[in-house]
């Protein structure tokens, strides 16, 4: 597996995606893979346009989104829960970098689709996300001496809306990553099908998740 990494002091998730897109050839060397990719109906320029759209929206509407070290691959298998000790640990930090904290949350919710046979209808509903985010924000405020800031319904709604946009970023990231891996990885895995799953989820949820921001633009 090829990993693209750069030391930076700015949120880096979009530079990671850009790094993948620049290394993907116009035509996959495996004719069968390329034919399957073309049958999906999304060209790489189309995907790059979507990436720029979402990045521009984040820069415009989320100027205060917190940043820090992010894991960037919080699929279910990378979250280890010890029932006896009541502890949670994370593994596999090869994509870790300085970026938007809410990307990790949005990516984690996107990963509720499961491993293997993915079902994107498992994406958690609003009530569950707000319950989850209430716990997250409470702990975040404690750790950052912000306990004087109440967890209001408006704060929850703002965070919820931002996290959903970062779920879209996660779908784009892993869709492009899969296209990249389809060309370069020696792992026996159907990366084209994975790209189809993630990019399909992006286009399925895009209008709904972007609505709070595009309607106000």
Name of the top-level CATH class: Alpha Beta
Name the structural class: mainly alpha
The count of strands amounts to: 4
In the sheet with the most strands, the strands line up as 1-4
Low-pLDDT runs? 1-7
Examine the secondary-structure arrangement and name the CATH architecture. Alpha-Beta Complex
Overall form: globular
Per CATH, what is the topology?
Aminoglycoside 3'-phosphotransferase, Chain: A, domain 2
Strand content: 5-15%
Radius of gyration: 18 Å
Roughly how much helix do the residues carry, as a percent range? 55-70%
Overall pLDDT: 91
Q: What are the secondary-structure elements, in order, as H or E? A: HHHEEEEHHHH
Separation, N- and C-terminal Cα atoms: 40 Å
Number of helices: 7
